[in-house]
Design goal:
InterPro entries: DUF6285. By secondary structure, the protein is mostly helical. The protein is 68% helix and 0% strand. It has five helices and no strands.
Length: 120
């Protein structure tokens, strides 16, 4: 977005207010819920900022599919994996492995960046 604050900035600001200004005044029984909301806000912010293009490109390359929606490609990949189409020794095995790694890194970067050695 060209204007500031954008959605990511708004989520970050709202999360900071929740954690720094509101959380200290909540009863102990409500603090866990407030932290859950703050974590969801952080995940939503990272998801909005994540660059999905490299993982989608790896998926497209592995499936030799230059077009198609990501969810349709993922469903196709799941069907093909279940059918054994990408087992070791098959032509696309390495490319599918690379695509799965890219997808896993993308997802971990959004939901658990510390698992990748990145700050949360």
């Amino acid at each position: 977005m060209l204007e500031r604050p954008d959605g990511a900035n708004l989520l970050e600001t709202a999360r900071d207010v929740l954690l720094k200004e509101l959380l200290p005044h909540l009863p102990e029984a409500q603090r866990f819920h407030a932290r859950m909301v703050a974590n969801a806000m952080a995940i939503a912010r990272r998801e909005g900022m994540a660059d999905q293009a490299p993982a989608l490109a790896a998926l497209r390359a592995a499936l030799d599919a230059p077009e198609g929606a990501a969810d349709a490609l993922l469903a196709r990949l799941a069907r093909e994996i279940r059918a054994g189409a990408h087992d070791p020794g098959t032509p696309a095995h390495a490319a599918v492995g690379a695509a799965l790694l890219a997808l896993a890194r993308l997802r971990a970067g959004v939901s658990a960046p510390r698992a990748l050695g990145k700050g949360g």
